[in-house]
Amino acid sequence: MLTDLLLPMRFPARRIHTILAFAALLFSAAPTKAQISPQTAAQAVWRMTTEYPENNISGIGLATFADRVAARTNGYVTVTNAFDNQLKINSGEMPRAALDGRIAGGDAFAGALSGLDPVLGLSTLPFLVQSVETAQAVNSRARPLYEKALAARGLKLLYLTIWPATGLWSDRSLAGAEDLPTLNLRAYDVNSSEVMKAAGANAQFLPMDTALAGLREHRLNAFLTSGDGGAGRKLWDFLPHFTAINYAMPVSIAFVRSEAFAALSEPMQREVLAAAAETEQSQRALLAHRSSENYARMRDNGVHIAEPAPASLVAALRIAAAGTITAWEAQAGADAAAIVEWAKGQ
User: Fold this and answer.
1) Regarding beta strands 44-49 and 105-109, do their DSSP bridges make them parallel or antiparallel, or are they unpaired?
2) Sequence-separated (6 or more) residues with CB below 8 Å from residue 328
């Protein structure tokens, strides 16, 4: 064939025909775009994190999402997870870490994100929801507000995880409101810190790792968190009492940097969102039995569970909560306040 290319110019037609045939042979040997599988194409790798252990409900969500994304994108999008604050990035720091490129995203406790926008603190408002059904309805109504708040800061909401109800872990049995001033308590966001202070406790909002250090050093003797959060951290080693005050059913929010999501093709974006929706449904199914499983594990480890909580204790906390809810409604805006008012009627 190469000798044909060298034929003298007196055979131009034959020479042109040979060149075209040679070019066709070269192009037929190269794979077309449609023939390139996801495995051979350049892949998107998302590093995601949570400050909670892998067996915590937040960790389970990230693991599920990674599996679903890999399956739905045929390996094109890969999620690599860091659990238990391995990267030393707590929930409140995750948005900045994502925008700085240290991570693609993560699963953050929503209360710690309220500094970005007050609406992200909705799920931690005290005594707003008292059932899984109400929690699901409230967050369905609030989801567009969450999405808007995150999008304004360059973040894409993926899925929500509703946590089991928050209670009080303590080193002593709580008989009533009179015991609140004896507590040096870790709160999980600014609002809960204010409520606990108003009720008489010495409370402060601390990231989980900082709070655990305070517990080991005996500077704290109580935690506001769920059975899930406490069981994952084995709080029973220090705090063998759990009072089921049903303070809130908070959410954690899984998100990714908007630029990372936008870099995907539209078909891949659809698959990632489908994986996120499947993860959210899986997390809801997990929640149905999570509290009873946590309580069984807690009792197996010597935790004394007070359920129902002493009436005077709950009454004092509800009174202390009223001002916090009113202040939050004023900050969060009319749409968010309307959701709160709806929830109060349930």
Assistant:
1) parallel
2) 118, 121, 125, 191, 340
Selection from 72, 90, 96, 115 nearest residue 332 by Cα: 115
Residues 72 and 195 in one domain: no
Q: Does residue 32 or residue 284 have the better pLDDT?
A: 284
d(CA 212, CA 304): 20
Q: Is the pTM of this model over 0.85?
A: yes
Query: What confidence score (pLDDT) does residue 229 get?
Result: 84
Cross-sheet strand order for the sheet of 222-226: 202-205, 184-187, 222-226, 166-170, 241-243, 304-306
* pLDDT band with cut points at 50, 70 and 90 for residue 5: very low
Interatomic CA distance for residues 238 and 152, integer angstroms: 41
The verdict on 139 and 254 lying in the same domain is yes
Which has the higher per-residue pLDDT, 126 or 30? 126
Domain final residue pick, 281, 297, 313: 297
pLDDT at 186: 97
Helix axes 266-300, 132-151, angle to 10 degrees: 140
CB 346 within 8 A of CB 134: yes
